[in-house]
Design goal:
heterodimer; A: mainly alpha; 3-stranded antiparallel beta sheet; 11 helices; B: globular
């Protein structure tokens, strides 16, 4: 088991994830496709076809079609004719709008965790471990983007759980799904290093109960991602 | 869920879309739009016919709006997109209620997002008058958010706030 998998397993009970039990076939296929989009394996604008997917998952086209409809409702892709779908691409204005919303909500989530009187030691330790792991992944030339994203996501869940921010978590998960494709593209090693340092400051602020710093760093980590996405788009 | 004392008040009378009238259309899918039917269900919740936190089955929807089960499924999906309904594998669709989220947290999210929209639009949000019909409050809030969203050129933020506004009013109705 990799270090990331071990971290995810040992901290699963501390997260405030939006969970679902017994997913049906279409949901299982949607989960796999969503991960591929989130981890940058399928890119914005790329076409997804029903027939090869049905063959890959060894199912008929029905569940694949249902999975694509599910992802369309999550705004990850748009259906194109009867044969498949295209992963959604965003204008700079759409990205700016979504990231500004996320920044303010992220700041609120960190603030709520910092102002909570009861911050369990186990959760704080898990956040410290998460920061250490983010730094190791960022420094490892072979460290996978998917690992970085999963650890960071778990840390967000833990912080939202500390702040009893289940509504916020719910909205943020929807947004993270939606902008997963352009977002995954910015997680180069430089961005990972800067992001891991911001996360270290977030965890410190939550630990110290410093609400203003937690809010400011919570915003910063999102707005820095936006800057990176827009910079890369301008360069392309 | 059993739907008691169902009053099929004309939908348009409460300020809803005028092209949907459940009394006339209950026997057929034709001319019925799932979006309007979903609005009608929301109106029934604020009217006390359906309750926040309760299960909402396809049969309930068909009972209120008429139409087939496939149509009712579409209506429930639309309600999910509006944020009025949540799904769980254990209970299926339920109308958003107090066991889903804390109202204090929803209020804080509402305030943070509203501040963002007001800053982007450079205008103050003029909320509806307090008290009275909650559905009328929802319609007035939506219309004001739409206006500010256009001014801010940020339809996404306006759309999210309209969803939060509905959820906030549902939780207030349940309190």
């Amino acid at each position: 088991m990799s270090e990331t998998q071990r971290y995810l397993k040992t901290t699963a009970h501390l997260g405030a994830g939006v969970r679902r039990s017994s997913p049906n076939l279409a949901q299982q296929i949607a989960d796999r496709l969503r991960e591929r989009i989130q981890f940058g394996e399928i890119k914005p604008g790329e076409r997804i076809r029903e027939v090869p997917l049905a063959a890959e998952f060894d199912v008929s086209r029905g569940p694949v079609r249902d999975a694509l409809k599910l992802l369309e409702r999550e705004r990850l892709l748009r259906l194109e004719g009867r044969a498949g779908a295209v992963v959604r691409d965003f204008t700079a204005e759409e990205l700016t709008s979504i990231f500004h919303i996320r920044a303010d909500l992220s700041g609120l989530g960190m603030r709520m965790a910092a102002e909570t009187e009861h911050r369990p030691a186990e959760a704080l330790e898990a956040l410290d471990d998460g920061v250490a792991l983010l730094r190791r992944i960022a420094e490892d030339p072979d460290g996978a983007v998917a690992d970085y994203i999963q650890v960071r996501r778990r840390m967000s869940e833990i912080i939202n759980r500390i702040g009893r921010a289940s509504y916020l978590a719910h909205i943020l998960v929807d947004f993270e799904r939606e902008i997963a494709a352009p977002w995954a593209g910015v997680f180069g090693k430089g961005r990972q290093r800067r992001s891991s340092e911001t996360w270290a400051r977030i965890v410190q602020a939550v630990r110290d109960g410093d609400t203003e710093a937690a809010d400011a760093e919570g915003r910063r980590v999102v707005l820095e991602s936006l800057d990176e996405i827009l910079r890369l788009r301008n360069e392309a | 869920m059993v739907v008691f004392a169902l009053t099929m008040a004309p939908f348009a009378a409460a300020g809803g879309s005028a092209n949907f009238s459940p009394t006339e259309e209950a026997s057929t899918d034709r001319a019925m739009d799932p979006e309007d039917a979903a609005e009608y269900i929301v109106q029934q919740v604020f009217g006390g016919v359906l309750a926040p936190g309760e299960r909402l089955t396809e049969r309930d929807v068909a009972g209120v709006c008429g139409g087939t089960h496939a149509f009712a499924r579409n209506v429930i999906h639309r309600l999910q997109m509006l944020g009025a309904v949540r799904f769980s594998s254990r209970r299926g669709a339920t109308i958003l209620g107090p066991s889903d989220f804390r109202i204090e947290e929803v209020e804080r999210v509402w305030q943070v997002l509203l501040n963002l929209l007001q800053a982007k639009a450079d205008r103050v949000f003029k909320g509806p008058a307090r008290g009275g019909d909650r559905y009328a409050q929802l319609l007035a809030t939506r219309s004001e958010l739409e206006r500010l969203g256009q001014r801010a050129q940020d339809p996404r933020l306006s759309e999210l706030l309209q969803r939060v506004a509905l959820q906030r009013l549902l939780l207030q109705a349940a309190a």
